[in-house]
Write a structure and sequence with these properties.
single chain, 160 residues, alpha/beta, Rossmann fold, three-stranded parallel β-sheet, 4 helices, 17% strand
């Protein structure tokens, strides 16, 4: 399933008479998956010689390929820099990962806080892939009554 095909399945929407960013069909998710420490050994950019030898986490391969086959979008989002795209792609392909995109250059350091006008759910990987469950947690949101009313119910994060 190509990314071009998926782009054609996006639903056009408008707000106040203006076309805005399209959304995915109901039930389809955009998964952004880290690489180092999530699907394989955590390898520093400063040690590129290890990238092709990184140890695969087998449950990651099975889970992500299942999601791909269910027509979800699989996008790897890594702190590896652009100069290591070739090695990253070789490793992913060698191990049989099915995916749509690789985004390089994720900021290093963790402690991510993503702000966007679209629904964002987050799952912290902690040593194994399992089925995702619903769990309510406290998160930080903007102190804006309009946003709390309009979007407050959307911030149920999926965590392990």
């Amino acid at each position: 399933m190509s990314i071009e095909y998926l782009d054609k399945t996006l639903i056009a929407i408008s707000e106040n008479g203006q076309t805005i960013s399209p959304i995915l069909s109901e039930g389809i998710k955009n998964y952004l998956i880290g690489i180092g420490g999530t699907i394989c050994d955590d390898i520093l950019n400063e040690e590129p010689e290890r990238m092709l030898r990184g140890q695969l986490y087998p449950e990651a391969l099975a889970t992500l390929n299942k999601w791909y086959d269910e027509e979800h979008i699989i996008c790897f989002f890594t702190s590896r820099t652009e100069e290591y795209r070739k090695y990253t792609k070789i490793w992913l392909d060698k191990h049989g990962f099915k995916y749509h995109r690789i985004l390089m250059g994720k900021p290093r350091g963790g402690n991510y806080h993503w702000i966007d006008n679209h629904l964002v759910k987050a799952t912290r990987y902690q040593e194994k892939f399992t089925n995702l469950i619903n769990k309510q947690v406290t998160i930080q949101v903007f102190d804006d009554a309009q946003h709390q009313y309009k979007f407050g119910y959307l911030f149920n994060c999926l965590i392990y």
